[in-house]
What we know:
Blueprint lengths: L1 E12 L5 E4 L6 E4 L3 E13 L10 E4 L19 H7 L4 E5 L24 H7 L26 H6 L9 H15 L2 E6 L1 H12 L4 E7 L17 H4 L3 H4 L3 E5 L7 H19 L4 E5 L18 H15 L2
Parallel strand pairs: 5-6, 5-7, 7-8, 8-9, 9-10
Antiparallel strand pairs: 1-4, 2-3, 4-6
Helix pairs in contact: 4-5
Amino acid sequence: xxxxxxxxxxxxxxxxxxxxxxxxxxxxxxxxxxxxxxxxxxxxxxxxxxxxxxxxxxxxxxxxxxxxxxxxxxxxxxxxxxxxxxxxxxxxxxxxxxxxxxxxxxxxxxxxxxxxxxxxxxxxxxxxxxxxxxxxxxxxxxxxxxxxxxxxxxxxxxxxxxxxxxxxxxxxxxxxxxxxxxxxxxxxxxxxxxxxxxxxxxxxxxxxxxxxxxxxxxxxxxxxxxxxxxxxxxxxxxxxxxxxxxxxxxxxxxxxxxxxxxxxxxxxxxxxxxxxxxxxxxxxxxxxxxxxxxxxxxxxxxxxxxxxxxxxxxxxxxxxxx
Length: 322
């Protein structure tokens, strides 16, 4: 096991007033000068290497928006997460905290980041993550969907791991993911939500380092511009040709009828998957309810049947020889 801080650049801050603050409790005031150089745009990665891995390809786990790599480590109700299941299956694993999240740290604003962060409330998480109906009771918890597989009694544990996020930092985050791939690739990238979208972009940007993409309810897909889908747009579609040589799998949970927003996200992924297929690629879909696995939330890796879902993903990777 080894931790890494990857990517980033130096930024300089000037002209801030010098404050006089008590920095250490009972230590008295001292000058506090925050002018100077800062590391910005780095990401954090924890590497887990097996003595005898069954696969030569490490699996890189990329978390969703407003989350950290903790979502892969354990579940809200205390079970082992997909990190440990992947190690048991014989894969080396790298768990990441993306730029501005968790142990990657963040920068001052507006001196370095242009804006303040946005935050996700428990109420928004309950409905957006398709755990249940609204009408929260004061702690963000509403009525769970019938058959819900998320351990909703432990919803507060999920809320406690949510972190601030900054909008418009996609290019900075992708640059750090590029550096990560350069360090650990070739690899399999398994991304959830926003991380799934970054994984799809990574297959375009670094196709020689990505051997397979698994998007668990991915968002933020590469945009297929009008004209790229037909014969007239073939030149534009060629930009996606390197990614079409890489197998892609999208995994979708349940309760989509309750979320127009997720219907939209899924439709955007469908458009991109269709383009990959037209280019001769292998872009597959694991629709869990259609496969007889029902009740999953947006966080199927945290759901009580999460190991069964991962088993389907591992079987897909095994069929690919990954």
